[in-house]
Amino acid sequence: MIKALATFLSMAGVPAVLRHLRGPQSLTILSLHRVSAEEDYFWQPLHPDRFEALCLYVKRHYEVVNLRDLNLLAAPQRPQLVLSFDDGYQDFMEFALPVLVRHNLPANHNLVVACLNGDYTIWTQRLNAAFNQARQQQVHLQLTIGEARYDLQRYNNQWMPFYLAVFKALLQRPRLMREEVLTELETLVGRPPAPRMMTWADARSLANHNIEVGSHTYYHDVVSTIHDPAQLHQELVDSRRVLAERLQQPIDVLGLPNGQNSPHLQASIREAGYTCVLEVGDRGNALPLASATAPPCLHRINIVDELPSLAQLRLEVLAMKKNLPQSLSHK
């Protein structure tokens, strides 16, 4: 029913009406991750065909830009849009990059330093893989996170609500506690091979295709949970320095892992020297960007694998929720 309604509304021109109402003085940033034909119950990658349909749509209706180019378009004729990727999965090189090159579209990609160094899997991917293993093996999971007990049976053996509850709980916990839970899970169900990640050679090649590289921190930790200055420095400052040195290019964008922000991060972000910070708020941004002494925080709209008509409608509805980006100094 929802798919049929979305198709009807798209064919009726509702997305065009929403773009007209919003006007050209807006910035929409899409948050993307994996582009692959693989099947994954808990985190379905965006199918390459649907990614190409998305690219065709935004190319037709938006001025697709990099974040560094925003000041060069002071009076845009069309609303601006950034295709923003996180994590640095190898399937970006295999499936997403050829589409971007074919349609001459720029993009932003925020990379995790430890993944580029090799033999490191970010915690969200480990959680996802372990849950897929548990579901396939029909393991009755019971997990303790802090003082709370999470039991699959209490969720009526419904895997997705159970997974989301555990994921949200781990977002609020420090790295050591997350590591303990993940180790317990992997001991119980095994640790399957992780998806391949980009190499440093891959990352260096991105500049040849107008892909703007940003930092997605050093270890993809939940930086809003970090209060140790040295650990924050590594995630925010060292990640930018290492990327800039290894890639021989400026690194001005910080993509916050899982979109998690916090007021106590502002000093470390200023120290690191980023010019903009990306979080996930499922809304658009108004232009011109607010002037501030700290880097502005820009909202992103999360893109999932769904019918193109539904993706287009959801994009335009959420982009209507634009507001002036808030500086970290105002949070």
TrEMBL record:
Keywords: Signal. It is found in: Secreted. Residues 79-331 form the NodB homology domain. Its main location: secreted. Pfam families: Polysacc_deac_1 (PF01522). CDD domains: CE4_NodB_like_5s_6s. It comes from the Bacteria. InterPro entries: Glyco_hydro/deAcase_b/a-brl, NODB_dom, Polysacch_Deacetylase. PANTHER family: POLY-BETA-1,6-N-ACETYL-D-GLUCOSAMINE N-DEACETYLASE (PTHR34216:SF3), PTHR34216. This is Polysaccharide deacetylase family protein.
